[in-house]
Specification:
Number of strands: 2
Mean pLDDT: 92
Low-confidence stretches: none
InterPro entries: ATL_DNA_repair, MethylDNA_cys_MeTrfase_DNA-bd, MethylDNA_cys_MeTrfase_DNAb, WH-like_DNA-bd_sf
Keywords: DNA damage
Protein name: O(6)-alkylguanine repair protein YbaZ
Shape: elongated
Largest sheet: 2 strands, parallel
CATH class: Mainly Alpha
GO molecular function: catalytic activity
Structural class: mainly alpha
Helix content: 40-55%
Pfam family, one: DNA_binding_1
Strand order of the largest sheet: 1-2
Number of domains: 1
CATH architecture: Orthogonal Bundle
Length: about 120
Amino acid sequence: MDPAGTINPALEYLDEVLRVVERVPAGRATTYGVVAEAVAAVLGRGGPRQVGTALARGGAGVPWWRVVNAAGSPPAHHASSALDALRAEGCPLTADGTRVDLRRAGWEPWEDDATASTG
């Protein structure tokens, strides 16, 4: 909130993105689109590009490397460090090692809800 007691929409969006990204388990990955869908379920706004912007501006304290594009590629300007971190966590990558194998490693926030209700 700002001094007038109103909520800053940009900070609210950033906080929700960070909450979702913090939940991605080690060795798994998700997409900007999935994060955007989860945030939109709470705030009713935003999309994949907004998620990328939020992570670029304030995501240093969360496992940002676990968020990739729909093809499984990490951000081009951080690809090497992201792939190194993903490999270190045992995240399944494609045969050429340049992308996350989302069929094996993909995570969605609603998995937590399903696990909580069945386990």
